[in-house]
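so my prof wants the structure for this chain in the tokens format not the other one, which i didnt know existed until like an hour ago. anyway here's the sequence
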Amino acid sequence: MKQLTCEMCGSTDLVKQDGMYVCQSCGTKYSVEEAKKMMIEGTVDVSGSTVRVDNSASIANYLKMAESAYDSSNQKEAENYCNKIIEIDPNNYQAWLLKGKAAGWQSTLANIRIEESVNCFTKAIENAPEDAAEEVKKIASDEVSNLSTALVTLCCNNYAKSGSVNNAQSIITNTTKVQLYALMMLAKCGVTPKELKSTFALKINAAAVSAYGEIKKDYWGSTGHPSKVAWDYYTDKAWKAIEVIEYAIKLSDDDDKEDKVRYENIIFILKELEKSGSYTYSNGGWRIEYSYTGEGKQKIIDLMMDYHKKIKEIDPNYEVPAAPQPTNNGGCYVATAVYGSYDCPQVWTLRRYRDYTLAETWYGRAFIRTYYAISPTLVKWFGHTEWFKKMWKGRLDRMVANLNAEGVEDTPYKDRNW
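here's what i got, hopefully its the right format
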């Protein structure tokens, strides 16, 4: 509370007489209400018929404390001081400008405050004196550019660490909101956003790639034989990762070089989706339980080919590959029946031989197709019998040993499209 001081002579010797405060130096009289205002808010101008309270000292003090708090990264306290100034002077452009900065940098994933920040900057521009207007616009545009990039980065980092469907949607929702208000503010400041969208797109694509790595790791787990629940989670999150990359493409669709990379990322995920499935343990071995079949597989392959064609539109020299034949996750039927698992060292060896030796020639591919046409029926009829397994095990053991000796690996393997 300020000391009671006479407006006329500056004396602090005021005495209450007959319900009035009287200056003992010059005789000026003040009512009780005027004295209260002088002590609480500032000095009172009694030179005319209108009483005016001068709060400039309080405003200057609050602004100094707000700036100090902001410089110390205490944005909440800075915002509180700015609010005190605005309560006294709703047209104080400096308070609105600093509040916009303080509010924006308090954003969290649960509370993106870009809209509030932009509204404060707008107030600052509207109330700025003519000689300060350009500087205010420059500060506001720089701040919004930096803030919007930081907010998109926040969402991307969160998604990269945990590739959930909700985190993926958070990128799309929040980036759309941030972009809307950022572009609106930049337009008001007369600034053309040269690289804002492309920066967003680069960060979002990188986040999707990192997130997919985590998604795939969770899918395979520690056993290498995902359950039906794990497969369902994987497919949901993988399709959402594709949606996120497609969003990045739409954000910056005039960057052909980066769009080509993004199309390739989508193709990679689609290839893995087409081969994915869940496993069940039965008859002493792991077998594919659920996977994409028929129309589901063909839809994925058609999408892959569409993205190959999009790359061709960007790069005329790009050679669109032939449409892949749907992979058969139940392949190597006889070997799987003999060894009890589609994922074991012997079958991994045989699958490599199939994909990298037999599939390299037309007659090899013809043999594979013939084998897949006949072997499922044989295994269905006889695969559970001991004589069938005994008849084939010796032959397959010798074949696997020869292939290993020739350098064919027996380590974990994922089928190749051919």
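also thought this was worth mentioning. The two ends are 84 Å apart (CA to CA).
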